[in-house]
Amino acid sequence: MSTPKDDAMPAATLILLREGYGRPEIFMQTRAKTMGFGAGMIAFPGGKVDAHDMELAASRLVASSGNLDLEEIAARVAAIRESFEEAGVLLTHGPEIAALDFIEAQPAIASRALAFSDFLARHDHQIDLDVLVPFARWVPPPGLHGKRYDTRFYLARMPEGANAGHDGNEATTSWWITPAEAIARADRREADVMFPTRRNLERLAQHASIDALIAHAMETPIVTVQPEVRMCDDGLHLCIPEGIGYPVTREPLETARRA
Hints:
Elements: E1 9-19, E2 24-31, E3 41-43, E4 46-48, H1 51-57, E5 62-63, H2 70-87, E6 92-93, H3 99-110, H4 116-122, E7 126-128, E8 133-138, E9 149-157, E10 171-177, H5 179-187, E11 192-193, H6 195-204, H7 210-219, E12 224-225, E13 228-232, E14 235-239, E15 250-252, H8 253-256
Parallel strand pairs: 1-9, 3-11, 5-7, 8-12
Antiparallel strand pairs: 1-2, 1-4, 2-3, 2-10, 6-7, 8-9, 13-14, 14-15
């Protein structure tokens, strides 16, 4: 029997963290209005897991202390690649890369003119999968959106001395912000946010430090979140399970459908 995940494309999202003034800050971008999914929405860097990510996952350029399966490794590789393509943040280990090589590689890898693995090998860099902390996994129900993704969310500390931005192609603006302020912007209708992003912002906003947030993620088992449409007293809502770390577990279907 098929499951709701069977026809969903694998994807990965990275939530970059840095200490702010009193609360952790996260890195967010506004997706270009030309994007086929989440156009104009605020989101975290991320994208589809492609065939090259699967190949790279099985190579010597990837290291981990954990016993991870190939799909999990490929998702982490994709999250790291996307963070470089979209935000200019390279979560790898190796010798310093010249600024010009770094700048030129970002759009070349995004356009597939340069393979991410070739870039890493050229500069003797290796991916350390352990810098990513699994946070969530979401799969939307069939019929809610045109495209369906099986998306794994990861947390990672922003590397010291690194800068994050936006590529001007898939993402048009970017900023560091507390999860609570991102929610407030959405409430003021200054930004549009997708249902999974909103729920994850609410979950992130519960924690007063990066250490507390990472501890929460590590002690909370990853349960695949598969939202369901349910009739409640006040109408149709999109709902997620209780008891898996999310303080808000439903939203009116009218607003939750936006993507």
